[in-house]
């Protein structure tokens, strides 16, 4: 993927004006559709789920009574001035206003609240309510019809106050929340970049994505009924991720420019590397949002898919429009002080920025606030972990009392006519007037069943009134209206609905359904609450699978998942405390604390999961990379933290800045979602990822990255670091083309460029003898940022083509792989410094493994492969084999290469040897040691038979001639027949001495202590001889005239 994105980024940079023109045309088309299409559908403010009892009941009610139960309605509320009543004096003004409403297009009927037959007037005669029924469902009512009703009721009827509440009330969306979010994001970007142009361009590209997504939703909303929440949610999320995704590409481009890359190449490499992270992050968010469809709730699916589409557009913008903008921006993406630097100076800045942490120089991580923070966490991981978990846990405590409900007029802004109308209705008719329940009895015995269940319902708690049953035209159904004593979002109303269904369950002769708008809202809320655990479980499983595949570990995915759950708890707990309990309600403009929006927890789970996994990937992948390259766990945490933490913090501040703007919008629906996401993002990025993860990884050490072998074989290896792109860049640096699988096209020496084919310079130190390094390797060392380059040769110094070279980290994970070309050259690009294992193998050659240390630039490492050689032979003494002898093979420096024992047949074998000179030593009991030089040929089986012989032994004593006692520390010298000294020794306390491992023959023994004595002695081959030497009188006595075999 990284290679594909690299090419896309390079294309977008080189054809930047064409790319931007395509986006401009796309925006123009979407704008023309959004503003040019005729409005045929209104925004949908209703929420329903097909298949629930209330939904089925409404359909049956429409069928049996033709009542227009599914038709959209509005209520016009009239209130007489204080101290007055709705008398005949002001009835005319009321009737005139209702007459204007009846004359509007799309109005089916308008009730008369002051009629004698069906009055709708409060007991104090001050408040009256008229019901307006539209000609169609909520989805059929157009924006023009809503505007016409608003205009007709936009002034009082004489002295009578007029307010309107409607299912299709238009919400005039302000832009204060977006402005706050953009301002916060711009400030963070300026501080991050140190360049106004870069910050502005980042916002501009994000606005491009949000604009495209928003215009698309507007165009779709002209022909499809969309929820009023859908555009706001999509815009909120699209703006946040659009800024962040562009930030990743901008930041990486700056890094490449500082390394001295040409502008187009810097943009292309940034798109290939940071773009891979953007695709991964965006895909995670898209899957989480699209996954809302699994709960099978239509309006939730609609919101999830719309938000997912906006995120997808943000990803495409980051991969195409952002590279084009970067090309237009040029070096203005850098701070002014860096634009005048030469490439060497920029490279120095990059090296400084990208420096890593060694175990011995961990103080590098201490520079800056985040560095000091990381060191504090890793020095006291237990304390940091406890404080963080307790802090997040305390914020999450209110979740235990969370209540949810669908939005109603009582949650609207107090300044709106909709909320004021609701308050007047509650004041005049009680809270139950806004939460009436419809009990529908359908069946052949509907009349008798209705007469039976009516008293049962009346006897239930919290029932204010039960109307007499009204029969349908054909008598097959009966309708009963129940007035609760509580409002639509009150928990007592939900309890009453369940109690009625329980009391009428199992009734024979007719089916009893509890329906109506209030019952429908309760059913939807119950369905959402039931879907929430299923969705969370799905998200947790997805997180585990995703992170196991990414990090190839068990502990890290578990930690990340637990961290996400903590962040989710903090997000929902804060919203419960503010929106349900009323804490800080004045600050966030919450007029009426109450239950949370039913679908808010599900949406927050999906969005927060995507963002949390982004932060997890950006932070922990850097730590994982450092650990994989051999760093100690604490050093890996510090190095990875220093590289990735600033990006995570900046992204989180931008996200939270956008979300907090919506949290203070005054709209409790959007506000509650914005607040939950603000707290969730801050808790996840600043507490879970900045404290809990580094502390836990420090405590776990190497165990954090452990995975069972059987699982490691099953889990695919994801190239999250873009290693294949690095290989491609190295291949381009060598002038080779791409082939499928990432292997470079090889050129024969005669096809190489002249400076490559000619041995322009001698091989550098460490290069195999006879193989010139050439300018090609030197060019690789200059062009490759990080990696290993060199030459592979055979045992005689010739080029070894097609050798396979593999680099692994100390844990055995493959990091890079390539082949040597026809002249033995190879290049293995790497993404970070560290200690690696270089494994080289070739046909008919012995494989080797070398440890190679890579710091901050490419290094040269030449490799010599030799064919497999062997040494074998037979040990014998005369005609008899010598079994069990110990054979040791040493190289010319005296280092032991291998050792073995001779078999029962006296044969031995050393296999898998490198051609060269060796010394073979043989040690066998009762035989003289043998050492023999041997030359092992390249790729040959060398045979060497050795003859072993038994060694003789000479022992004796040196005595004083005067008294016969042994002479201590007398010097004894043994000389062979040729006059050469064989050995010398001194006597022990009792005058004894010995000479071992002697060849058979005639020797001269000399003893000195008194006047020296010399005597001849015969030592038999492999035999034992005792001798006694007397000092002082020249006498000699043989202790044993006959030899004895030992």
UniProtKB/TrEMBL annotation:
It is found in: Cell membrane. It is a multi-pass membrane protein. Its main location: membrane. The keyword Membrane applies. One of its GO terms (cellular component) is plasma membrane. Keywords: Cell membrane, Membrane, Transmembrane, Transmembrane helix. Residues 755-768 have a biased composition (Low complexity). Residues 196-328 form the SSD domain. Belongs to the resistance-nodulation-cell division (RND) (TC 2.A.6) family. MmpL subfamily. This is RND superfamily putative drug exporter.
């Amino acid at each position: 993927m990284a290679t594909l994105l690299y090419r896309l980024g390079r294309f977008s940079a080189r054809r930047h004006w064409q790319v931007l023109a395509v986006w401009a045309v796309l925006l123009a088309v979407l704008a023309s559709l959004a503003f040019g299409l005729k409005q045929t559908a209104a925004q949908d403010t209703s929420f329903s789920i097909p298949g629930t009892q209330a939904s089925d009941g409404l359909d049956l009610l429409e069928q049996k009574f033709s009542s227009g139960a599914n038709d959209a309605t509005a209520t016009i509320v009239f209130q007489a001035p204080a101290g007055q009543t709705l008398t005949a004096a002001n009835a005319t003004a009321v009737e005139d206003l209702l007459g204007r409403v009846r004359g509007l297009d799309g109005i089916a009927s308008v009730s008369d609240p002051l009629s004698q037959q069906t009055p709708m007037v409060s007991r104090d005669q001050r408040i009256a309510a008229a019901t307006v029924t539209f000609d169609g469902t909520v989805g059929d009512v157009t924006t023009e019809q809503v505007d016409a009703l608003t205009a007709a009721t936009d002034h009082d009827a004489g002295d009578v106050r007029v307010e309107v509440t409607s299912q299709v009330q238009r919400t005039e969306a302000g832009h204060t929340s977006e402005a706050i979010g953009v301002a916060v994001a711009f400030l963070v970007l300026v501080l991050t970049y140190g360049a106004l142009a870069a910050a502005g361009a980042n916002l501009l590209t994000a606005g491009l994505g949000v604009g495209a997504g928003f215009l698309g939703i507007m165009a779709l909303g002209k022909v499809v009924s969309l929820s009023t929440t859908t555009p706001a949610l999509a815009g909120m999320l699209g703006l946040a991720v659009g800024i962040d995704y562009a930030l990743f590409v901008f930041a990486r481009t700056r890094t490449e420019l500082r390394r001295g890359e040409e502008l187009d190449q810097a943009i292309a490499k940034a798109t290939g590397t940071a773009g891979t992270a953007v695709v991964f992050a965006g895909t995670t968010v898209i899957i989480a949002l699209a996954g809302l469809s699994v709960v099978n709730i239509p309006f939730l699916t609609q919101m999830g898919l719309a938000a997912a589409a906006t995120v997808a557009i943000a990803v495409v913008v980051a991969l195409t429009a952002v590279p084009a903008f970067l090309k237009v921006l040029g070096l203005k993406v850098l701070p002014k002080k860096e634009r005048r630097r030469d490439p060497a100076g920029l490279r120095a800045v990059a090296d400084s920025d990208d420096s890593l942490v060694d175990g011995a120089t961990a103080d590098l991580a201490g520079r800056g606030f985040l560095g000091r923070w990381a060191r504090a966490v890793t020095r006291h991981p237990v304390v940091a972990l406890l404080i963080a978990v307790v802090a997040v846990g305390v914020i999450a405590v209110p979740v235990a009392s969370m209540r949810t409900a669908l939005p109603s007029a009582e949650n609207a802004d107090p300044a709106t006519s909709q909320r004021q109308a609701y308050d007047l209705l509650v004041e005049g008719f009680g809270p139950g007037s806004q939460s009436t329940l419809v009990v529908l009895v359908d069946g052949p015995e509907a009349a008798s069943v209705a007469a039976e269940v009516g008293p049962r319902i009346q006897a239930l708690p919290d029932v204010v009134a039960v109307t007499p049953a009204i029969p349908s035209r054909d008598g097959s159904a009966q309708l009963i209206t129940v007035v609760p004593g509580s409002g639509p979002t009150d928990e007592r109303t939900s309890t009453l609905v369940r109690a009625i269904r329980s009391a009428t369950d199992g009734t024979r002769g007719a089916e009893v359904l509890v329906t109506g708008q209030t019952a429908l809202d309760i059913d939807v809320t119950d369905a959402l609450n039931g879907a929430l655990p299923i969705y969370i479980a799905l998200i947790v499983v997805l997180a585990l699978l995703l992170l196991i595949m990414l990090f190839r570990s068990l502990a890290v995915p578990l930690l990340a998942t637990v961290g996400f759950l903590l962040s989710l708890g903090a997000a929902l707990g804060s919203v419960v405390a503010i929106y349900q309990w009323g804490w800080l309600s004045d600050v966030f403009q919450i007029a009426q604390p109450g239950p949370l929006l039913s679908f808010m927890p599900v949406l927050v789970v999906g969005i927060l999961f995507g963002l949390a996994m982004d932060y997890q990937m950006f932070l922990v992948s850097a730590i994982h990379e450092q650990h994989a390259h051999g760093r100690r766990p604490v050093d890996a945490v510090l190095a990875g933290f220093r590289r990735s933490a600033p990006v995570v913090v900046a992204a989180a501040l931008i996200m939270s800045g956008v979300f907090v703007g919506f949290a203070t919008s005054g709209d409790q629906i959007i506000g509650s979602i914005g607040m939950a996401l603000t707290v969730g993002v801050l808790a996840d990025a600043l507490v879970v990822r900045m404290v809990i993860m580094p502390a836990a990884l420090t405590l776990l050490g190497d165990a954090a990255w452990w995975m069972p072998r059987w699982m490691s074989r099953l889990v695919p290896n994801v190239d999250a670091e873009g290693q294949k792109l690095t290989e491609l860049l190295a291949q381009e640096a060598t002038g080779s083309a791409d082939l499928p699988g990432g292997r470079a096209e090889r050129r024969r020496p005669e096809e190489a460029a002249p400076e490559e084919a000619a041995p322009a310079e001698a091989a550098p130190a460490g290069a195999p003898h006879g193989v010139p390094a050439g300018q090609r390797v030197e060019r690789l060392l200059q062009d490759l940022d990080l990696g290993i380059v060199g030459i592979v040769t055979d045992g005689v110094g010739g080029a070894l083509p097609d050798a396979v070279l593999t680099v692994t980290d100390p844990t055995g994970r493959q990091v890079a792989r390539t082949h040597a070309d026809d002249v033995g050259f190879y290049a293995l690009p790497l993404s970070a410094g560290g200690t690696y294992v270089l494994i080289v193998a070739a046909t008919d050659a012995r494989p080797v493994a070398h440890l190679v240390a890579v710091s901050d630039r490419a290094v040269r490492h030449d490799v010599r492969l030799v064919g497999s050689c062997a040494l074998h032979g037979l040990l014998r003494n005369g005609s008899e084999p010598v079994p069990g002898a110990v054979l040791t093979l040493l190289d010319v420096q005296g280092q032991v290469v291998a050792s073995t024992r001779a078999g029962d047949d006296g044969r031995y074998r050393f296999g898998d040897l490198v051609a060269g000179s060796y010394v073979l030593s043989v040690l066998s009991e009762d035989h003289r040691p043998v050492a023999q030089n041997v030359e092992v040929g390249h790729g040959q089986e060398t045979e060497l038979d050795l003859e072993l012989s038994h060694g003789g032994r000479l022992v004796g004593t040196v005595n004083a001639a005067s008294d016969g006692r042994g002479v201590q520390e007398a010097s004894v010298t043994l000389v062979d027949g040729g006059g050469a000294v064989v050995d010398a020794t001194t006597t022990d306390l009792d005058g004894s001495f010995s000479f071992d491992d002697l060849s058979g023959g005639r020797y001269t023994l000399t003893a000195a202590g008194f006047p020296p004595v010399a005597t001849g002695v015969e030592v038999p081959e492999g035999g034992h001889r005792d001798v006694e030497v007397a000092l002082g009188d020249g006498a000699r006595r043989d202790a044993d005239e006959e030899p004895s075999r030992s």
